[in-house]
Amino acid sequence: MTELISVFSQTPWLFVTLSFIFAAVIGSFLNVVIHRMPVMMKREWQQECNHYLSEYKPDVFNKSKQQLEQPIDPFPEKYNLVVPGSACPKCKTNIKAIHNLPILGWLMLKGKCSACGTSISARYPIVELVTGCLIAFLAWHFGPTLEFALSSLLTFCLIALTGIDLDEMLLPDQITLPLLWLGLIINFNGVFTSLPDALIGAVAGYLSLWSVFWLFKLLTGKEGMGYGDFKLLAVFGAWLGWQVLPVIILLSSLVGAVVGITLIVVKKLNQGNPIPFGPYIAAAGWIAMIWGESIINWYISTL
């Protein structure tokens, strides 16, 4: 391992190139996570509801016992991040291994199913390309270090969270909570910040948006954001320390406001309709991970 790290240190272009290829492959898997994890969660919720309803007495719902014992929406087939294999959603034709190649597979198919000609969303190669580019940049920025490995893992998770939030307005605890604990663990030895700063950051990150949430709700009677947003900001506090939280909040709010106003102007969004805030927190946090200290120093120098 030491020799390999030495080779990568001496030939950074090789490390960056291999990082891009590896990340593009992971990006292909992230597409699966973005699509399937919400489905898996909904199925789990449905099964829990079925089990819960089956505990009630039949006369409560004016149904026979036999009716209550029948599941509302059974899921006999196995469904997870691995099974079933990739297939066309329309004709169910399995996608060949060569067509699963990141970016190139979509280009070879010209964005269409080889069997029925159904269009394949351009989001798949975009996610793969963005993942590859971001990790390649981290490889160039950090080099073959522990910081590169950990920041890459965080980036993979942020991409998955962004895609899921855009589709479902949901930030799964299955991703955010492990990231929160991991941030505290890795900073036990001060990888990105000190442990006290990480602990304060996790608490402050959660409570800052939690306070805004309840203040907005008390004033308007509406919920302005979801609890997943609190947890995601807590993740960045745990990874990077409390000092970067103002930068993340400012950048995410600014970008979110600009995007929201733009969508309203072009009539892509009606006033009052919710928009996911997680992607803006994720983008701002990633920027803070790279340039947070420089941004803070620049701001202090302007005072």
Automatic annotation (TrEMBL):
Annotated Gene Ontology cellular component terms: plasma membrane
Primary location group: membrane
One GO molecular-function entry: aspartic-type endopeptidase activity
Membrane-spanning parts: 12-34, 124-142, 175-192, 198-220, 232-265, 277-300
The entry's keywords: Cell inner membrane, Cell membrane, Hydrolase, Membrane, Methyltransferase, Multifunctional enzyme, Protease, S-adenosyl-L-methionine, Transferase, Transmembrane, Transmembrane helix
Membrane topology: Multi-pass membrane protein
Enzyme nomenclature, EC number: 2.1.1.-, 3.4.23.43
Taxonomic superkingdom: Bacteria
UniProt domain Prepilin peptidase A24 N-terminal: residue ranges: 21-142
Record's catalysed reaction(s): Typically cleaves a -Gly-|-Phe- bond to release an N-terminal, basic peptide of 5-8 residues from type IV prepilin, and then N-methylates the new N-terminal amino group, the methyl donor being S-adenosyl-L-methionine
One Pfam family named in its UniProt record: Peptidase_A24
The keyword Transport appears for this protein: no
One GO term of the biological process aspect: methylation
Start and end residues of each Prepilin type IV endopeptidase peptidase domain: 153-261
Ribosomal protein keyword on record: no
Cellular location(s): Cell inner membrane; Cell membrane
InterPro entries reported for this sequence: Peptidase_A24A_bac, Prepilin_IV_endopep_pep, Prepilin_pept_A24_N, Prepilin_peptidase/N-MTase
Sequence similarity: Belongs to the peptidase A24 family.
Role played: Plays an essential role in type IV pili and type II pseudopili formation by proteolytically removing the leader sequence from substrate proteins and subsequently monomethylating the alpha-amino group of the newly exposed N-terminal phenylalanine.
Protein name: Prepilin leader peptidase/N-methyltransferase
Native species: Shewanella fidelis
Lineage: Bacteria, Pseudomonadati, Pseudomonadota, Gammaproteobacteria, Alteromonadales
